[in-house]
Amino acid sequence: MTTATATPEAPAPAGPVAGGNALAGTRTLIRFALRRDRIRLPVWILALFLGTLVTAGNFETLYGDPEDRANAVRTMDSPAGLAMSGPRHYLDDYTFGSMLGHQMLGFTAVLVGLMSVLVVTRHTRAEEETGRAELVRSTVVGRHAHLAAALSVAVLANLALALLLALGLAGMGLEGVDAAGSLLYGFDHAAAGLVFAAVAAVTAQVTAHARGASGMALAVIGVAYVLRAAGDSGGNGALSWLSPIGWVQRSYPYVDNRWWPLLLCLALAAACAAAGFVLSTRRDVGAGLRPEKLGSPTASDALATPLGFALRLHRGMLAGFGAGLFLMGAMYGSILGDAEDMLKDIDQLQEALDRIGGAGVAESFASMVMVVLTVVAAVYAVMAALRPRSEETAGRAEPLLATGLSRARWAGGHLAVAMGGGTFVLLLAGLGFGVSGAASTGDGGLLPELAGAALAYAPALWVTVGVAVVLFGWFPRASAAAWAVPVYAFVVGYLGQILRFPDWMNNLSPFGHVPRLPAADMDWTPLLLLTLVAAGLVWLGLAGLRRRDLETK
Amino acid sequence: MTKAISVSGLHKSFGRTHALDGLDLDVESGEVHGFLGPNGAGKSTTIRVLLGLLRADSGAARVLGQDPWADAVALHRRLAYVPGDVELWPGLTGGEAIDLLARLRGGLDRKRRAELIERFDLDPTKKGRAYSKGNRQKVAIVAALASDAELLLLDEPTAGLDPLMEVVFQDVIGEAKAAGRTVLLSSHILAQVEKLADRVSIVRLGRTVQSGTLGELRHLTRTTIEAETERPATGLDGLPGIHDLRTLDEAGGRVRFAVDGGRVDAAVRKLTEFGIRSLISHPPTLEELMLRHYGDELAANGHGTGPGTDGEPR
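ok -> structure tokens follow
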């Protein structure tokens, strides 16, 4: 009707467009993607860059004199220390440079991987899922342009981070942090990022959903991290050679400065990217490689209850996290025996262990692992607790809430799954850890002990859910802030051990109040208090939900 | 008759936008009530207030004698809702979604469900993500009609349905009305409302601008008359209530004009003075009703003026 006079932006010339040019329009799409990510990507890159610089600066204050560094080596030279840092070779000469490579690289490689996976899925599968890709593909845009553009943006972001890190670290003038090592250290990040970007290029072809695609790619990162943790902490490190994160750590920046492990990364990235392009030609736009199946024409009785319905929506994720945590626990458990053997003979160790928690070798290691497993379970709990919010914004809450289902029962179903399911995955993590830990140490008593230790974290998990509910009920637009809880718990619970944060920082996290079983003794009081806090938060959140407007499309 | 819905002076703002600005609406029990207005007039917001999904800033609303915000859940067992833009769960089949919605409302007539699925030609085994917009709409319509709701709140329910399905929809609503149910049907598809509605309310900018039976509303508007006379008709422009008078040929033997509802008699009398050869009169369509209400808006956008100027008989 309207005779709009505004001329649409002319499509940028994409070079000579031949009929069969599968890459036509890639450059335009790259510019478009960079424009869309003009805030997101710089935030990621700057956060990683500044985080690294601040940590490197911290090393100087923490480990200023050689005595401190020797202490650090003793703490790190244990299965627990090596599992959460990197290969032991760094410890031979523990300068600030080798500390960076040892303590930071594995951790930042995971984050760079996360950034790369999210970039690639956002510009490929997410575009297809929303139907925007179809619109774009109907113009002069080649079949491979979307994937090529997404990968290019990931490459650009990774290169930018690599150069920033190389320049920034070399410019700090820290002892042991030289220019050659910094250059390699920066490109270690780019290499890890490229591998996981290419992995996402494959997973984006497999499922029809962006969430599934990034979830699968994140699972690959998780497996890569666990493999290197298992390889570095016990045995001969063979497992680490199966992990791209292990490869970049084994380039030994500042120590040996060897570049060839990065070639492994490049080769794997190239292979995965090629696989992604090939797979994408075997499917239709918008579809996954797995065909859609037909389902039941009627609903079961269980589905028509709030809890049954919520379980149905959550079951895929619940099963995924349950299986993942069980395996993760089992992998850590399998090195528990090695850990004990390895450390039995070392006398000075007792001092280092006192700092971690006291008790025996295996117990201290187990307590450390428990923190990691709990944070992963908390990630599940937050995702599940935020599900009602995504149902609301997607417009799927509206028809349900127009039936005889009250808001509290609707949200309650999701929250019951978040809390019950969170406890369930926590228990599975404890069981996996316990079963394989008991097998590797030959101590059958570890199974109930470790399962119990995992369950002790349940009340803290419920508080995490409670925080998400309060945000959802009162400040729905800020719901995503609930992520701060697991992120903070990870930073203080994991990095805090290395960087020695003050107690008050630990106390801010609900997980900081849980007794660190099995190394510490059981204490019921904080668990009861956390449960009460969780109940109060849920009540408060539901009260907010009852009185606010439903957000509609 | 009792009132199924009674709303007066409803206000609702979202930030600085006034979605509802003193809206009134009365729906009698057992009638099909057309709720007309352009996009953004406040139709969906009103329906969401009636469902207790949104809380009105001020004004009174009663649905089936209950407070839609305070008694939302009890009320929802007595009504069914079809949103204008149905979103389904990607992993649930259409059949599961129908059962879920109908059973959470408090019951499902299996026979009617099967019959409706048949009539709407819906495949209930497909997953939600595989449905087109029209099919998602059918899922919500079947879910709403398969239960014994007293009141149906339909927010542009047929968006995305093809013409054949549109006919099925009209039949089904006709049956619901025959069964004594009340229907509030929001739409900007005028022909649909014209066929189904007993009464209509026209909203604009969050306010009810007109309400009544179609006959009453027509009375308020103008009939278009096209006449061919033996001698050129003169003096028509002197009559009160005549608008947009046009002569259609050189000699002046054919004229067309719009005349206010109450002035038709005088205008036709005048025409007889010149010897009527043929006379065509067009009752005002809802389109013209709407154009009259939104005419100033359209005029401001440079799209001609009020009714009658386009004048093509339909």
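The radius of gyration of chain B is 23 Å.
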